[in-house]
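Appendix C. Worked example: Stage 0 sporulation protein B (Sporulation initiation phosphotransferase)
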Amino acid sequence: MKEEEVMHLLSHYRHDLLNDIQLIHGYASMGNLDKIKEKVKNVIDHFNQERLLTNLNCPHFMIWVLTFHTKYNQFKLTYQVEMGMSSLTSSDLSIYTTSEEMMDLLHKHISKDRIYNGELLIGEEEGMPFLTYTFQGPIYKIMDLKAHLLKISFIKEVDLNEESCKITIAL
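Step 2, the predicted output written as structure tokens:
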């Protein structure tokens, strides 16, 4: 990662953190203790998930996830890493390139005036790691998209309809 990219990442990271702190400050000035507790819990949960993501030891993929919203501005992505996940260092580049190729294809089949909410689940099933991406919003030319997605290495399952998609990467 180049110095400019690191600076860009840190700038966005700082911006998001300051937004959270400003919300907490606003709730405090209004005396809204319940909202403060809720927001602090959400921030703690976010950083715990980020710690689990970091512990996967996948630097390329981790940076891709953390900068996702800057590259794919029509998509919002939350993620959850299951507890007890082992290191995926040897799969880092495969996960990164597969995820990026998948998103580049998906981006060609969406409405340009919509925001798509997505979730990424990173887990293990029978000792085998998987990533499942789920996005909500209109998808176009779904049969064409499905055919192209299934040609990508490591993509094992694609469930598409006109309003959502679920794509699973298995390693």
